[in-house]
Amino acid sequence: MKKYTKKLIALLCGVTMTASLLTGCGQGDGSSEAPEADNQTQEAPEADNESDAPEEPAASSDVVLEVETGLTGERLDGLQVLMNQFTEETGIGIELISPGDDYENVMKTRMASGDLPDLWETHGWSTTRYAEYLMPLNDEPWLSKVKDSIKKTVTDPEGNVYTAPLSIDPASICYNREIFEAAGVDATTIRTWADFEAACDKILATGKVPVYVGGKSVNNIATLFEVIAPGFLTNEDVSDNQGTALLDGSFDWAAKWAPIAKMLDNWQQKGYFNSDILTASDDAAIQALANGEGAIVISGNHTIIQALGYNPDARLGIMAIPSPNEGGKLYVSSGEGTCYGMWKDSEYPDECRKLLEFLTRDDISVQVATIDGKIPAMEGVANDDEYVTKEFNIMMDAFGDDLIFVNYFDRVYLPSGMWNDMGVSGNEIFMNPGQGIDKCVETIKTAYEEKIAQ
After folding, report:
1. Do the Cβ atoms of 146 and 337 come closer than 8 Å?
2. What is the pTM assigned to this prediction?
3. Is residue 104 within 8 Å of 30, Cβ to Cβ?
4. Does position 16 have pLDDT exceeding 60, yes or no?
């Protein structure tokens, strides 16, 4: 069996990236990794040499399962350790493949060619993009342990489940406590976007970047819309709720999307974003949060895990997403986190089921969730002592009944493939401060009308 190290994985990523490019895990075809969200995927610190990456043990059977994941860096190393344990326990080999930021396009290419891995990370698309390629898992014994909240998300209208959900992926706002304290900002008092802007003004006055965005990847531009849009358009407390209009094609983009674009444009003109927003990498944003240069990163909570990899002493927290309106509900967007499904045409269905059984075990699933900075999806499984979960619980306690949980916006309300379009349209704002709002709205409106008609 092949022994993959980080260098070999990096080489593989380099080869595949010449053919295609990834989006985030949103919820439609090229969707949010939302904050993944999917799936989508921020880079973690890489090891300096291949000896730092865990090597695969020799398999004692002739079966080697190919498993595709969107994880990178230290998170990938953590998953490899668990895959090694599976091989040691069962004798079944695992070839763990990580295309990194190219994950989504690699999977699209493989779907088109009919050459798919035995198992892969569905990153938010188990019931839409991948369902026709996956084996239904309705009769698997571990399914009864899945929390109802996430089970609904991974169940299609016919009642089929195609993926083993190992974690729930909440997306909110990650912040540096030291910067907030130095600026005299209390995150628990930020309940509206007006409060948020007042906090940004205080942070800006200290010489720090209020909101750091790695905009070199359109995923992170798309995430801004993903996080902000529900409070304006679709949350339960929105008086002029636009959910139905978004679904049936009657949504008025000029009237309803423009205010969101205008708010981001105002932030740009006020200097809330890093000046290199369109060229900064994912990793630059993570390092800025970790090292006290950037106060806020709007992303999935896994960002904290990656930032702590750079600075274990960083004091980081999690904020709820503010409401546009005084007295409105704060919220957290969430969806399926780390989830794996099996190819319906795999040569090794029994071995695939064994791997899913292994991953859904209490002692293993909690490690998968923790590695990725997410919340366990299995009943009776908790990682409350882990940094991210503790901070998430602190945030929930602070807002109590004023906090609601919503599904990822683009997965529910936008046609398949709109995640990338959100990012591309947002670029118009940052390329043309003060003049890009109309172009932003027109770009996303055109993409929406094309895709909803398909």
Report:
1. no
2. 0.73
3. yes
4. no
